[in-house]
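Appendix B, record 7
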Amino acid sequence: MLFKNYVLDGILLTLLGLALIVWPNDALKTICIIIGISIGILGLLRCISYFTDPDDERNSRDLVTAIIQFAICLSFIVFWEHIIVAFQYLLGIVLLYGAILLFIRAYSIRSQSSIIMKISLVFAVVITVFAIVIFINPEAFASFMMQLYGISLIVEGIAMLISLHKFKLQYIDETKDN
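Structure tokens (predicted):
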């Protein structure tokens, strides 16, 4: 039974990866809507909890938090395109910060290890290029990242299926020998 579950996992990972490659924007929209619905459910549960708690245990902070969660939920569902762009800009800022830290690290170790300095500089430049691309075209970068995730899921799914196939063949050989 466990073997069949792993085979199913490998197939599902591969199919999900293909879907992310073929429909990256739809996948981004779906992810945003799922996150929005999840936040909305948390807000609904908090609201229910507020109204079902005894009067002496009620905390108005819970009701305010529920209202904020509903607002965030609606934002993720209605303005999903803007949310994706905002997250891409945030990612660009984080990447740029990381690149600056790598440049500083490379500069600080320049006299100790030239190979580590060169590797740090290469990574800093690559990360800086990614950050610049994000700032120039965040929507395209978001689609690219989804396709990259899709490729990694396909590779993982196929690797899982291949390793399971080899494991099954090895298991069959071992049972024949016994």
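Remarks on this record: Residues 97 and 161 are 39 Å apart (CA to CA). DSSP finds six helices and no strands in the chain.
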